[in-house]
Amino acid sequence: MVNRKELRPEASPQAAYGAHLRRMREERSWTQEDLAEPMGCSSQHISALETGRKSPTLPFSRRADQVFGLTGSKESFEREWRDMRHGVLLEGFPEYVGYESRAVEIRLFEIGIVPGLLQTPEYARVLANSAVKRGAITPEQADERVAFLEARQATLEREQPPMVFVVMDESCIHRPIGGAEVMAAQLERLVEFTDRPNVLLQIAPYAIGERRTFDLPVYLLTLADRAVAGYTESQAQGHFDRQTTSVVPLLTAYHQLQAASLSPADSVALIQEVRKGTS
């Protein structure tokens, strides 16, 4: 082929994305013009993406998934874009977030820190800056992490927001993050959050002991078609799962945890009691 530029997908994530785009196109024997038409762009734009001269966008990636029939698959361009954009996140989490934004029910369990969807900007910034001080991420990545969280929280403000179930280990409200002022504002945010009609928040108190069914953070989603998905993580590894056979047992354990936790009213009372101690 005349003027065909050899690609080096190992050079960078952007180069790998371009090589992936070319491979998908050529497997279908499409020219750049053939792909440009359904993508709603020019063949020059396709060429620039394939050769790494332009960076892909989220809308382009989602459209490419539709055109190539890759939506939700392991070869998804959206998944690759999220991995590029949020490389500081654990494996599987960007994919999880893609589904979280479309879920009709979200179930969260967290230990030690307030779940991201419920964090104030100040609380989130303290956590990100702490990671910078430890050398785990760069200041630029900290900014991306906070911006990414803000984008996730926007899903709770959509016209038809999901039903959100939250169970927090008691450690989440006792662990001081960012000093008394930041922590007091965060606890107040939790109380305000419980006023929403689509939210049910419970505290799993220390007293339940061995009845706490999870030892690691767990996030569970129910989609519009009633399909389920789950995300679990350790300190260094995340795992996204859409297999019903493995997610349903997590749902059962979540329901058991809810039964052992404080009622929503008692949970709010405990949060308010702890908040008084931070004032």
What does this entry look like structurally?
The protein is α/β, with parallel strands linked by helices. It has helices at 13-27, 32-39, 43-50, 58-68, 77-85, 93-100, 121-133, 139-153, 171-174, 179-193, 244-260, 264-278; strands at residues 105-110, 163-169, 199-204, 218-222, 228-233, 238-241. 30% of the residues are buried. Helix 4 (58-68) packs antiparallel against helix 5. The mean pLDDT is 89. Strand 4 (218-222) and strand 5 form a beta hairpin. A six-stranded mixed beta sheet has the order 3-2-1-4-5-6, with helices on both faces. It is elongated. It folds into two domains: 9-85, 434 Repressor (Amino-terminal Domain) (Orthogonal Bundle); 93-118 and 157-278, Endonuclease Chain A (Endonuclease, Chain A, 2-Layer Sandwich). The protein contains twelve helices and six strands. The N and C termini lie far apart (71 Å).
The rounded Rg comes to: 22 Å
Specify the CATH class of the largest domain: Alpha Beta
Order of helices and strands: HHHHHHEHHEHHEEEEHH
Number of helices: 12
Q: Which regions have little confidence, pLDDT < 50, spanning 5+ residues? A: none
What is the CATH superfamily classification of the largest domain?
A: Endonuclease Chain A
Fraction of residues in helix: 40-55%
Q: Strand order, main sheet: write it out.
A: 3-2-1-4-5-6
Our count of domains comes out at 2
CATH topology call of the largest domain: Endonuclease, Chain A
Looking at how many chains there are and whether they match, the oligomeric state comes to: single chain
